[in-house]
Fold these 2 entries.
Entry 1:
Amino acid sequence: MKNALSQIDATGVKTYRALASTIGKKIAGISSVIDDALATNPVLTKLSDLAASGKNYVSDALDQLKTFYEKTNDVPGQSQVDAWLQKGNGDGLSAQDINDIAKVHDQDLSGFNINGETASGLAKQAAENTRAGVKSIVRGIMNNPVFEEADSQLSDLLRTKKISERC
């Protein structure tokens, strides 16, 4: 949280809502830096080649999203997953694609019921482990200090924003 707060100008911020808004603006700027860094990596990797330590977190994330979208009748979501699967099994996924999968996974699988499960029955810890695994794959593919620093800053900001939104 300290790292995130040191990245923003909190002058005039008096409420948690204002803090979340200020952090949101900073997140947009850093996301742009990350997207620019991701765009510099032309490498495409097939889904079958993305296993890390014997575990393919990208395939798992796509399976979890597909199950969630089917159970919630989200046709556009299903179509996006199908497009990523087709691309991943064809020419391969770019670092940007894999990062997008991590973002969508985090955004769409972040609503948990009182039992700590999504609408599809996925446990909160399983969702977080999968998202973290996908992000580690992106970091490994990128091997870019600008990306790594921006990604670290973004993670700090997102965590702090979530905390400020709960207050």
Note: The radius of gyration is 17 Å.
Entry 2:
Amino acid sequence: MGDVLRFNPNLYFRTPGDLEAYQAIWPTQETRKLTIYSTSPEAEPGNVERDRALLAMRYGRSRFIRETYLNEFDALTGTDKAFYPPPPLWVEVELLPNGVIRVEARYRGQQFWKDEEIRNDADVCNLLVEFDNRGGVNLIDLTCWASDTREEMKYMQEAMTRKKRKRG
């Protein structure tokens, strides 16, 4: 589970741009990194220390779920004000027996669980199974984001066309 992330089989793409939007916001094995280890060059020292501190606060646990840090896994984390930010990307953080921290992309969409319900590693595993059952993405969030982005791009193209006509 988690080695190869697949596209959700229930996705319906109205336009070819919808598939491109989905691919842009969901890191896949072909397009982006899926996992960061605390020993890898992609690992930000500040992120690793935050994760170690969060693990220390969860006594007896070796894993938890959190939202990604800014630009941790993908470039579309709300930094470009021209586009709507994509739905949040959630990751599993795990402390491996050798002391290495593993952070893996797991789910894209609004949070549907309550943090207080995730009390131990078994609860995290059950949540990971639910992520997998949902195909790794919230379809409503994805559809709304793709639609908003499509409308924003259409507006920007119309504005550029008007600007060119004024100059011309």
Note: Residues 16-167 form one domain.
